[in-house]
């Protein structure tokens, strides 16, 4: 049997790959954007399900993968006398993705075209999210 990824690659490389894998599905990416854009309150799975037309069990699986990767954090909250698992972005994980994108932009020799502009637009949205999330740092 061959070597595992943990034996071949540094821990930080494996971690960033896991973060990227976590957002590599449209439903999970949309969930991350919903969670990040919810600046006034944490979101519950029910709130997220209202915006993503998938079954409750599918949403739960996607949220578990985001949580397991470390991209989102959870906290048990009581809302109207009912306990809910609430989600928020993990700023440190988001900053790791941001640093990777910064490195790619800096090191890239891609000529200026629509793809570079798309990457820059994504980066500027990521920058806005990470700046907002500073208010949640402990």
From TrEMBL:
Keywords of this entry: DNA-binding, Transcription, Transcription regulation
Signal peptide range: none
CDD domains named in the record: HTH_ARSR
GO MF annotation list: DNA binding; DNA-binding transcription factor activity
A Pfam family matched in the record: HTH_5
Domain HTH arsR-type stretches: 8-112
Stored InterPro entries: ArsR-like_HTH (IPR011991), HTH_ArsR_DNA-bd_dom (IPR001845), HTH_MetalResp_TranReg (IPR051081), WH-like_DNA-bd_sf (IPR036388), WH_DNA-bd_sf (IPR036390)
Protein name as annotated: Winged helix-turn-helix transcriptional regulator
């Amino acid at each position: 049997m061959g070597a595992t990824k943990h034996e071949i690659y540094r821990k930080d490389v494996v971690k960033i790959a896991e973060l990227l894998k976590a957002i590599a599905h449209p439903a999970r990416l949309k969930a991350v954007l919903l969670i990040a854009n919810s600046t006034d309150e944490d979101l519950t799975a029910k709130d997220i399900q209202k915006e993503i037309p998938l079954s409750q069990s599918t949403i739960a699986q996607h949220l578990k993968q985001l949580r397991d990767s470390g991209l989102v954090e959870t906290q048990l909250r009581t809302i109207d006398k009912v306990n809910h698992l609430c989600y928020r972005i993990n700023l440190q994980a988001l900053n790791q993705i941001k640093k990777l994108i910064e490195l790619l932009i800096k090191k890239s020799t891609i000529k200026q075209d629509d793809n570079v502009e798309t990457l820059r637009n994504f980066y500027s949205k990521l920058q806005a999210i990470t700046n907002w999330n500073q208010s949640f740092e402990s």
